[in-house]
Amino acid sequence: MTNARSIFISYRRLTSIDITGRIYDRLAAHFGANSVFKDVDSIPFGVNFRHHLEQEVSHCPVLLAIIDPQWLEVTDDRGRPKLANPADWVRVEIEAALRRDRLVIPVLVGGAALPADAALPEGMRGLVHRQSAVVRCDPDFHRDLDRLIHRIEGVFSSLAVGSGPSTPTNPPAPSLIDELAAALATANQTAQESARRPMGRRRWLRMAGLGLLGGSTALGVRQRVPALQTLTPGEVARAMPTLATLPDRIQQALEQGDATPDLDSLELASSDLETPDLPTLDAETPGLEFADWGELYSYESVTVDEFGMGRSQVKFSTPAHKALRLETPIGPVTLRLVSIVGGQFVLGAPATEPGHEPSQPTQTIAAVESFWMSVHPITQGQWRAVAQLPAINRELDPNPAYFTGSDRPVEQVTWQEAVEFCDRLNQLVDTHPEQPGLRRYRLPTEAEWEYACRAKTTTPFHTGQTLTTDLANYNGTQPYRQEPVGEFRGTTTAVGAFGKANDFGLYDMHGNVLEWCSSSRDASPGDVWQVVRGGSWQSPPQQCRSAFRSGRKADTRSNEVGFRVVGEAVQS
Predict the structure, then answer these.
(1) Residue 45: count of CB within 10 angstroms of its CB
(2) What percentage of the chain has pLDDT greater than the value 90?
(3) Within 13 Å and on the Cβ side, how many CA atoms surround 190?
(4) Which of 295, 300, 495, 500 is most buried, by the most CB atoms less than 10 A from its CB?
(5) Would you say 32 and 89 are in contact if contact means Cβ atoms under 8 Å apart?
(6) What is the homologous superfamily of the domain 7-163 according to CATH?
(7) Are 555 and 415 in contact (CB under 8 A)?
């Protein structure tokens, strides 16, 4: 049996043959009889049964270890435990699967529990650390099998993605020169015609690569929507109405100079493409404005069960958000924050929560005052803009990140540099006392971060009992509960890329980058150790839980560590 969608069932004939037969029937009906290996009767005569079993296990991505209440206690005809015999079939099967790192699922039947680690031979002890599935008798049998089949299908789906035939390569994209020529060729069209057929997002970005559109224009778009990638071409035209007449403006720039377009004329043309409500300020005098467009901040949250299946999806809209718009030497950039109403909550995780470590602090009742928090981790575009502001205590590298992209979170910044980021914002706020809004920016405390992450939930994740790689960027190759095996992207992703926030409207609280926190609202810059929260693109799900915390030296630079900021309405 070499079918890639194969399942090996390991069980004791003496104690669990009936329930195993029912499980086999359901699996065979769903996956096909040729995909499920169960009985030693199928071993050919005269072959080495141990070698044959190991070969069969090696061909099966999934092994189900059926464990009944007498599973450990079964003895041979001399009264010795069967598992103590290295040639015991069940032992051979499970040890082979664990050794080959197959997905081994302990299936608990008849009210059985996982055996203790010390009760198993050394080669089988990895079994007790695998997430188990429970299969009960009627009336719950078929419901439990549906869940088990769903999990196995997730494994096979991930294998199909990883090992399927390569997709055909896309045809070569037109050159940038061709794109420019196409834009110039339409310069004689009227503005009305251009508005009816607005320039597509991809083409607009390619034109930006030519230098025809400044980075400040792109940042102007980002101040109106959570992420640029969420815009449709029509929405781009509405957000930036002057883009629709780009060819006419390029033609005007060409007509103002010689017949051969030079860089200066093109830069001059791009300068008047900024949106009307973005004032042009002197580059040496950074401006500040709290933008208020009278719009609601809308977002969605989702909850999943232990199998990773959606249980609920809720849409929210709130007026309690602020957009801090900076006019910096490199152009405008926007930082959106949402209001978090304070309250009391249980800080930390119970000892029974999967992934909890004894070294973690015990649960306590904590209280936090109301505050504002950035809806995303600080992006590289935001970092780059603030890094151009005058230094307070240290210089900032405008491009520190390992995984580059303006919409990706900034990483490889130390705790002190994150504090410097906040200090520069505060200095800018102080130079504009006429502007209403938040007056102080800082890193969140641990209590504030966990309170904001949980968003009134008490489960391991704000998504519920588990997390999936459809909802967050982390290492999903080892499931947390009984959800399907996920993917490991090996890189950061654009902030908000998964489209689901928590109930407070915060994105990427689980995974993507770990986030620097402070021990208190006025933490000392001299503290050697600081805390990071939230997990990263490289973390297993256990380290992405709302309660998980770990320490880093304050001068650590890592492509796993970034931060987000908290705002206060009045300076304390």
Answers:
(1) 4
(2) 46
(3) 3
(4) 495
(5) no
(6) Toll/interleukin-1 receptor homology (TIR) domain (3.40.50.10140)
(7) yes
